[in-house]
Write a structure and sequence with these properties.
283 residues; alpha+beta; Nuclear Transport Factor 2, Chain: A; 36% helix; DUF4440 domain-containing protein; DUF4440; NTF2-like_dom_sf
Length: 283
């Protein structure tokens, strides 16, 4: 009889313990889900203080670009974006969030969805992006802290991304005739490099100065036989160009081939490299 009573007490204790653990687990899960929502809100508000408080001192993140950042470098990047933003964040939210516990740690996985808008764009277009993330949080001194993250992007919609690339290419053609310095300053990446007909290499500043020079006057400028190949956030454009005009008062007529390398950065296409080769009959 005593053994039966002891067994009954043990069963009640186990049941009570399991119920208590389930209750704590449920509370922790809700706390973590709320925290994930607060992370999204902090990103929308540029609330760097939130990240300073909730990222663990040993925090690390593997970004979609393949870089590996710690807390210090992550906060520094956020401050730079706050002072000199490269894009406008319209919306950000997490979806399909899953939480799994391993002792005092939690593994959170989910989908992120964002809408951004490029800055310094005469015709700003909304860009919808999405991807996956995995986060590891650890409960330290009774508080859940973000310890590690990994973020990946879903490839952009091919039709949309190709349309925006073609539009950027057409803006280059128009800007050449109108000598639109502001357009080229925005269209060329800061690390832009151009290889000319004689093998001369020029950077962004030099190239724009040459294009804006009063020595060069374009009467006509056309491109055709364009071909675009897109590799995630990088693209290669090849085509044929023909132009007429004057250089230091002397007429010229030129036909050639070109190769342009584009990169999709901060919600817009930018040119990182150009190579032109005149055809034999050019003068």
């Amino acid at each position: 009889m005593k053994n039966l009573k002891l067994i009954a007490v043990l069963i009640v204790t186990i049941i009570f313990s399991n119920c208590s653990e389930n209750k704590n687990s449920s509370n922790d899960e809700q706390e973590i889900r709320n925290l994930i929502s607060l992370y999204d809100e902090a990103a929308m508000k540029n609330d760097i203080g939130f990240y300073e408080t909730n990222l663990a001192p040993d925090y690390q993140i593997a970004t979609s670009e393949g870089s590996f950042e710690n807390k210090k470098s992550s906060l520094q990047f956020m401050k730079q974006e706050l002072e000199n933003p490269s894009y406008k964040l319209i919306s950000l939210k997490s979806d399909s969030v899953q939480v799994h516990f391993i002792g005092n740690a939690a593994v959170v996985s989910g989908k992120w969805l964002s809408t951004t808008q490029a800055l310094k764009d005469s015709n700003p277009v909304m860009h919808n992006d999405e991807g996956r993330y995995t986060s590891i949080l650890e409960k330290r001194d009774g508080k859940w802290m973000m310890v590690s993250e990994h973020v990946s992007d879903k490839p952009h919609n091919k039709t949309e991304i190709e349309a925006s690339l073609k539009a950027a290419s057409e803006s280059y053609d128009k800007g050449l005739m109108t000598k639109d310095k502001a357009l080229f300053s925005d269209l060329f990446a800061d690390d832009y490099a151009s290889t000319g007909r004689e093998g001369k290499l020029t950077n962004k500043e030099d190239e724009i100065n040459q294009m804006m020079s009063s020595d060069v006057v374009f009467l006509t400028s056309n491109t055709d036989d364009k071909n675009f190949r897109i590799y995630r956030n990088t693209a290669v454009e090849t085509g044929k160009f023909s132009s007429t005009g004057t250089y230091k008062g002397k007429p010229f007529s030129e036909t050639g081939r070109y190769t342009t390398t584009w990169i999709y950065r901060d919600g817009k296409w930018k040119i990182v490299a150009d190579h032109t080769s005149p055809m034999p009959d050019s003068k």
